[in-house]
Write a structure and sequence with these properties.
Blueprint: E1 2-6, H1 12-22, E2 26-31, E3 43-44, H2 52-68, E4 74-77, H3 87-100, E5 104-108, H4 113-120, E6 131-132, E7 135-136, H5 140-150, H6 153-164, E8 167-170, H7 173-180, E9 189-191, E10 211-217, H8 222-225, H9 227-240, E11 245-251, H10 255-263, E12 267-269, H11 279-286, E13 290-293, H12 297-303, E14 312-313, H13 318-329, H14 332-350, H15 352-367
Parallel strand pairs: 1-2, 1-4, 2-3, 4-5, 5-8, 8-9, 10-11, 10-12, 12-13, 13-14
Antiparallel strand pairs: 6-7
Length: about 375
């Protein structure tokens, strides 16, 4: 197949492309590298700024690039907002991609209208980026996301693309739960794990002393992602056990530097409000780190995993994180066992070739004439 992947979040599309290429497919990745993270891509569509001159250059460049993006069997969008433009300007590019290619699919991999709705209803999930039980979380990020995605043009575009596209791939349990609530025919939405490679000779490293705890911080999204609370718990642990804890903090660093810093650690703290490990957490697990974050039973059930439980699941509060970190600190044998299980878990569920085949199976299933009626069923 000839496959076009547009946009990037945390190296999802590039990792998927590598798996697809190993299966013999022709793949082109078009993205801006996910901003400052600077992930690899085949065609760069970075927008330099929102200034007038840069905007004009960006639009000219996009038109030139999209003219050449035709004849693909599958186009996969990272998000309904897959270009650095206002939604009204994105829609014509979406329509052009659909005209020029056989089918268009959309990823449910991050922030969008249905993710906001799932958090705001306080029933889809026990907790999320938007709710804790029946209470809504309030911060400036959430206010902006609610305005843009629930009531603004981004939400409008999301509904248009979700209705019109051939199918939707959800990368986490939470996104799958959010979308299937709104489709009359849930077959249009398929959960497929994120692709994450593991080196064939990867084995867990001996645990350092002091134990090395790693946390990555996006300064603009710390409260939203919960790293502010996780950092407080870690700093408290370091204060209580000054000779047994080493803290490594990566703040707003490019991906390659982030990965190097992570490799030499023992434990990663990530995604406080998640049910499921996302790409950063999975990357750490693939390198033999223990993940402290989201690992609820719902996500294991969706994967069909009955035995492995490598993720140290925490509830979204400082005390839960602190208690989990303390238990790890007091049991180095547990750390080593979870390191081994982490590698085994990623190999079993996130191998890029295996994941890529799941994508191919879904794309081809949805392209069959008898399944065309599934495309336009959304509440």
């Amino acid at each position: 197949m000839k496959i076009l992947l547009i946009g990037e979040y945390s190296n999802v599309h590039w990792s998927l492309a590598e798996g697809l290429r190993q299966l013999g497919h022709q793949v082109t990745v078009v993205s801006d590298g996910d901003g400052w993270k600077n992930y690899p891509r085949d065609v760069d569509i970075t927008r330099q700024s929102t200034g007038f001159c840069h905007t004009v250059r960006y639009l000219i460049h996009l038109k030139h690039v999209l003219k050449r993006l035709k004849g693909y069997d599958v186009v996969q969008l990272i998000n309904p907002v897959f270009l650095e433009l206002k939604p009204a300007r994105i829609l014509p590019f979406y329509k052009q991609l659909k005209r020029q290619n056989r089918s268009v699919f959309m990823g449910a991999y991050g922030m969008d209208r249905y993710w906001v709705k799932a958090g705001m209803d306080c029933t889809t999930l026990e907790y999320s980026d938007f709710n804790l039980g029946t209470s809504l979380r309030t911060n400036t990020d959430n206010d902006r996301f609610i305005s843009e995605w629930l009531y603004g043009d981004k939400g409008w575009l999301n509904k248009v693309v979700a209705f019109d596209c051939q199918g939707i791939v959800a990368g986490l349990y939470e996104y799958h739960a959010a979308y299937t609530r709104h489709f009359r025919l849930p077959e249009k939405v398929r959960f497929i794990p994120f692709p994450v490679p593991v080196a064939s000779d990867c084995e867990p490293r001996p645990t350092h002393h002091p134990v090395r705890f790693f946390i990555g911080i996006q300064s603009q999204r710390s409260a939203y992602k919960g790293t502010d609370i996780m950092l407080k718990a870690l700093q408290r642990l370091a204060h209580d056990y000054p000779h047994d804890v080493e803290t490594v903090i990566a703040e707003d660093v490019p991906f390659q530097q982030y990965a190097r810093m992570m490799e030499h650690s023992d434990v990663l703290l990530d995604q406080l409000y998640s049910y499921t490990p996302a790409m950063n957490g999975l990357l750490a697990m693939s390198k033999g780190l223990v993940l402290v974050g989201g690992g609820e039973e719902e996500h294991y059930k969706l994967l069909g995993e009955e035995k492995l439980r490598p993720i140290v699941n925490v509830k979204p509060n400082e005390e839960s994180v602190y208690t989990a970190l303390k238990q790890l600190l007091e049991d180095p044998h547990l750390i080593y066992r979870l390191k081994k299980e982490s590698i085994a878990y990623v190999r079993r569920h996130h191998d890029p070739v295996r994941v890529a085949q799941q994508y191919v199976d879904f794309w081809q299933h949805m392209q069959k004439p008898e399944n065309q009626h599934l495309s336009h069923h959304i509440l």
